[in-house]
Amino acid sequence: MSVNFMPLSPKILETIAEQFPVNDQCFYLNHAAIAPWPKCTRNAVQKFAEENCQTGAQGYLTWLKKEQDLRTKLARLIGSKHQECVALVKNTSEALSLVAYGLDWQIGDIVLISDKEFPSNRIVWESLVDKFGVIIKQVHISAQDPEAEILAAINSTTSKPKLISVSAVQYASGIKLDLAKLGVACTANDVLFCVDAIQAVGAMAFKCDEWNIDFAMADGHKWMLGPEGLGFFFVKQQHIKNLNLHQYGWHMIEGAGDFSIKSWQPADSAKRFECGSPNMLAGYALEASTDLLLNIGLDNVAQAIEHNHAFLLNKLQELGAEILSPINPMVRAGILTFRFAGVDSAVLYRKLMSKNVICANRGGGVRFSPHFHTTEACMEGAVKILQSLL
Ligand SMILES: Cc1ncc(COP(=O)(O)O)c(C=O)c1O
């Protein structure tokens, strides 16, 4: 099989060959759901398991160091100089809930989301309606000018939202928002800016500080190449102490680890959102995955994803697919959703899965989501199978 990574250097190609075993029986195009692990991540978990089996927590201080490394690397991955602003959380939904139930609400406060959010970034806000009289507004986003309606709402003088919460990249269509533009508008209008970053972090350079993001969150199992159940929650410094807390425990206080402290206070950092023992096993895994992504370089990752997106787009158009994702490279990321006239996409998806083309059925079509390491051979194989099913 020929492998062609136009945008990547020989050194990166070597790392890819080392880290991602080629399985020519499995055409994996589902990183927007759950990504396969690189070898370094598997090795980290194996090592941790072996250590636990042999010596239990004897090396606990090393574990704490690893946890600290993870925080540092996550901060770099999301473009923040402030690792004290990063908490380790179970998943995106948990972090969104920390924001929604951490803020003080007045009757009539408006939360703005798009009309295409993954349920995690809708349900949590809707849950505030009956409890606090919050109003949820959903705005339409289009591939042509996805920020237009959001910006109009932020700039509104009569119904300005208190907070907007949007996905950096939409899970079904793959529409990518210009977060820099939204951040400027939010800051100018005193609107809180919350970003569900799960479909973006690990797939592109992300810039929490530069884009003026107030809150961002993602679980690690998609583009970050980690396991499910461990993610990050970024809280801009000025909000850390303003979010009301609803979970308490030994781990989240200033001076955690000194069990004799009688008079305690929550940590000054985002650690106050981590009430108890961390998920060390997942931490070892995510640290290894994050380290790999940082070494590859997020601009390289994004360029390779763009290359793979263009490659698949071209092949799918040749087959006559209707493309449901944006065509414009400025508005697209790793997600490519399509359908064929007269073909039931749910049926096509099931047939593809039965032939080991690992994909998803989303947004009225079949969703392909290649990562930077996906080979052209893998994509060609998937398209060949797709063709045979039409
Ligand atoms: C945009 C988006 N947000 C959130 C999630 C998942 O949320 P959680 O990490 O809470 O499972 C997904 C999963 O597909 C997603 O696509």
Furnish the topology, listing elements before pairings.
Blueprint: H1 10-19, E1 27-28, H2 39-55, H3 60-77, E2 86-89, H4 92-100, E3 110-114, H5 120-132, E4 135-139, H6 148-154, E5 163-167, H7 179-189, E6 192-196, E7 215-219, E8 231-235, H8 280-296, H9 298-318, E9 322-323, E10 336-339, H10 345-354, E11 357-358, E12 360-362, E13 365-368, H11 376-389
Parallel strand pairs: 1-11, 3-4, 3-5, 5-6, 6-7
Antiparallel strand pairs: 2-8, 7-8, 9-10, 10-13, 12-13
Helix pairs in contact: 2-8, 3-8, 4-5, 9-11
Précis, in short:
This protein is of the alpha/beta class and 390 residues long.
Ligands bound, unique: pyridoxal-5'-phosphate
Strand content: 5-15%
Give the strand tally: 13
**Gross geometry:** globular
Roughly how many Å is the radius of gyration? 22 Å
The oligomerization state is single chain
Number of helices: 11
Report the order of strands and helices: HEHHEHEHEHEHEEEHHEEHEEEH
Low-pLDDT residue spans: none
Please state the average pLDDT score: 96
Class of secondary structure makeup: alpha/beta
Main sheet record: 7 strands, mixed
The helical percent reads: 25-40%
User: Distance between the terminal alpha carbons, to the nearest Å?
Assistant: 24 Å
